[in-house]
Amino acid sequence: MGAKKKVKNLENGALYQEGGDISSGKRSVPKKEAREHKQQLERLKETQPEFYKYLEEVDKELLDFHDEGIEDDAETDADDAIEDEDDLDDEDIDQRRSGAKEKEKPAGGAITMDMVDSWCNAIQENGKIAPVRCLLRVFRTACHYGDDGDGDSSAKLTVMSSDVFNRIMLFTLSKMDGILRNLMKLPSYGGKKEKILDIKNSKQWKTYNHLVKSYLGNSLHVLNQMTDAQMISFTLRRLKYSSLFLGAFPTLLRKYVKVALHFWGTGSGDLPVVAFLFLRDLCIRLGSDCLDECLKGLYKAYVMNCQFVNASKLQHIHFLRNCVIEFLRVDLPTAYQHAFVFIRQLAMILREALDMRTKEAFRKVYEWKYINCLELWTGAICEYGSEPDFKPLAYPLTQIISGVVRLVPTARYFPLRLRCARMLNRIAAATNTFIPISMLLLDMLEMKELHMPPTGGVGKAVDLRTILKVSKPALKTRSFQEACVFSVIEELTEHLAQWSYSVAFFELSFIPAVRLRSFCKSTKVERFRKEMRELIRQIEANSEFTNEKRTTISFLPNDPAVTSFLEDEKKSGASPLTKHVATLRQRAQQRNDSLMESSVIVGAESSVFEKKLAESDEENDGAGDDGAAVFSSSWLPGKESRDKPPKEDKKKKNKKKSKNRPEEALDEDIVEDLVLSSDEEEEPMDDSTADGEIVKTQKGNPKRKNKRKPAKNASSKNAQESKKRKQSH
After folding, report:
1. Is residue 481 a part of any domain in this protein?
2. Which of 1, 15, 439, 651 is deepest in the core (most CB within 10 A)?
3. By mean pLDDT, which of 345-354, 492-501, 688-697 is the weakest?
4. How many Cβ atoms from other residues are within 10 Å of residue 308's Cβ?
């Protein structure tokens, strides 16, 4: 009873009028009409007591007219007051408005913790509609707190402390979904689009739909105002349970999709995962209403985030790629239609480059944005290659990748060619289809840059995963030659290991073995010879392994029984090449780990996609403890986030990053700097600038060292180093 009295008192003098977004959908009953209706009900009780009892049993809410709060002027709609003013004189109107303003002034105009607690207790104990409306009004005030239009005359209570704000936000976000579902007589969790369409014609929806719209609209507004990642994550996590209601409001649905896509592409910490789960749950429940928009938005956000790649951004791009591939699983037939369109766009860009043969056309293909799109669809084919909806996309994608490899066959694009060969290997393994990758890799070994002595010295370590084009000085370094040769050997071994159990392995590996022997004779680097001889030895051993089994079979090569050839050995991994490729993978992993310190990488935690996805899915519905920790700060809308560092700290961090940034960042592949490598375009470089020695003056302008004396020293040093290498070889 105490909670009821508090609610009633608040309705009499501490609430603003119903209007705007919150009251839209239901018009309040004027005071005069309400009294007449109440008198009619009292007369009905005296004249027809049996019918009155029947109404009490069937529809008690119809007789419980007082719960709607019509006896108070505070619950009267502002529009009704304006309509009543049409029958009054100007003086009466002025007197009436002045008196209404005096009545509207609350004692202090502040929302206290006692008020909020009384509403929350009344909702939990009685489940009445009046405290729900009160709570949604103050929730709207909390969401719009600090806005430019905060001085709205229709809002009586506009002042609150941070504790009150936290209490309102936490209770509303945690409990309002269950309250609205009870009012609409929906299941406590889940539901599909058909369910919300069924109840749109019901009495409950017509009565309470404005409450749903108020809750979703104000939550969207506060999402746009928040800057703290934890607050946004908690709010999205709670709104995910109310995603079913968005099917009834297409405008709000589009806005929520847009906001979630923004958080997915630009968020930090757990926010991208939470935003992705929100979008996925939205599409599962509402289907085609938002699936097309989400697929296009995810692809566009992915493209925008992968225009440039470096060691610190690599894992975040992998995370975004895994998200897009996982999202395609929601509806594979629809995803196929979008994938076909996007792959066709890539093919048109490549065809334009082949026809135009200009630097600008080549630049559109040989850039990170294009290559990362190929990586995305390669991952999709590898994931869903066995599905009949996606398998037809493997052939056009293979043709595009093969065309990219041969577009500009120069040594400066070694990293790009290796990346494309790796994609072709993955497609072949996923679809169990033979792709002639060995010729692409063996052509790389015959380029003259790998047979020339490394006049550029040892050079810096080259991470082929983070570059597409190598600088001209780096081509002449020993580290680049080693990285290229070892990467070619690894990819060639991967390709041959895929078919190490094929009945035609001897014929398939004959030409690669011949060309590898030719490379061994032509190269003068003992390390390369050693690696090639080991690979040739493994190829010969694998040929003997398959030929022994071939002598015992009697079926023809086109016989379906070929699929069972060495089936048991394949399951156990008994072929020599399978064992050899395992050791090469370990060596490649060690080399990659040495090039990139995983503990320092930004976004390393967010790259673990499946772990984060599982953790987010396992979160229970009652996230009260999490919410209390998130909303325990002094943050209010319209103010700066608690985690926003001061400007001075940002400057210090930027200085530290610039100092700790490796020198490899200077040689990063930039799309705008793409220039075809040819001897005619190369500028003449004397010995003094061959090693790229640049010093900075006191003013900060780069100037080269003295030309003549350092040139002699440099040339003499290079001659001595070349003599030592010849002696060692």
Report:
1. yes
2. 15
3. 688-697
4. 14
